[in-house]
Design goal:
Elements: H1 2-124, H2 137-156, H3 167-185, H4 189-202, H5 209-222, H6 226-239, H7 246-259, H8 263-276, H9 281-296
Helix pairs in contact: 3-4, 4-5, 5-6, 6-7, 7-8, 7-9, 8-9
Length: 297
């Protein structure tokens, strides 16, 4: 019996040993899988971290896009503001253009009215021999002397006046004058000045010569060419001392000197105007300008 139990016990011990060895082998084999799972878990963690990192970058990009879109919104707002301001400026420009057209039209009407008055004086009035500034002692004396000279000449000489020329010459003079004046009425100042200078060259003693000289000064004054305007108005005063536009010529000389900031000369001219032509509209304007000059000093 002992002989039988001993082998059985040995067999059991061997089986236990084999099971232990097998268990250890299984355990050893299971360890790499655990490391693999650990690695896979770490890789998954890295992927999740990278996913988190990518989402942060995406958030940053999204924020940048939002900021850029806000910048575009601001730019669009600025563009809309500029467009509205441009529309306002266009409206103001149209308004100023309309006002300028009205001023030009009034200026044309004024030129026509002055020309009509001057021509009426030439036809019906005493002509260039009158002063045009009532109340002027010097002008009245000059006009009286001129009328006396004309009366004396008429009494002693019955021939037609050589200053007016023949009727054909007078018609040519009227045509040339009207051509130059049409340029002035159209506000084509440079062409008008050239035409009036040509008119005076062709008809230096013509009936409308002094009017042409006045318009030359006016054209240069309207262009703010004050230096030349002073010369032209002075020619009117020197060459046509009996013109009815002398007071206005002196006033425009004073205005031109004022614009050129020659205040002392302007005051001297204006004082002479008030002395020669007291009580006239031009004298009143001269007095106002003198006061303005004194305030600047």
């Amino acid at each position: 019996m002992k002989q039988i139990l001993l082998p059985v016990c040995l067999l059991c011990v061997l089986l236990v040993d084999v099971q232990l060895v097998f268990a250890r082998d299984v355990q050893l084999r299971s360890r790499p899988s655990d490391s693999t799972s650990t690695q896979s878990q770490s890789s998954s963690n890295q992927q999740s971290n990278s996913t988190r990192k990518l989402s942060a970058e995406e958030r940053l990009q999204r924020l940048e896009r939002i900021l850029e879109s806000q910048g575009l919104v601001d730019m669009l707002v600025k563009i809309e503001n500029l467009q509205s301001e441009l529309q306002i400026l266009r409206g103001e420009l149209e308004l100023h253009t309309h006002q300028l057209d009205e001023i030009k039209q009034r200026q044309r009407d004024l030129y026509v009215d002055i020309d009509r008055r001057l021509l009426r004086l030439e036809r019906n009035g005493p002509g260039p021999g009158s002063s045009g500034a009532t109340g002027s002692t010097a002008g009245a004396t000059s006009a009286t002397a001129t009328v006396g000279a004309v009366t004396s000449s008429t009494a002693t000489n019955t021939k037609p006046s050589t200053t007016t020329g023949s009727s054909t010459d007078f018609a040519a003079e009227q045509k040339a004058y009207q051509k130059a004046f049409d340029l002035l009425r159209e506000l084509r100042y440079e062409q008008a000045v050239t035409a009036f200078n040509g008119f005076i060259t062709q008809f230096p003693q013509g009936r409308y010569a002094h009017i042409a000289q006045y318009w030359i000064g006016e054209a240069n004054y309207a262009q703010r060419n004050f230096k030349q305007a002073i010369i032209d108005y002075q020619k009117l005063i020197d060459n046509y001392p009996n013109s009815p536009k002398l007071a206005e010529a002196m006033l425009k000389i004073g205005y031109s000197q004022y614009e050129l900031k020659k205040f002392k000369q302007a005051e001297t001219t204006l004082k002479q105007l008030t002395k020669n032509y007291p009580g006239t509209t031009e004298a009143g304007q001269a007095t106002n300008l003198i006061q303005k000059i004194r305030l600047k000093r």
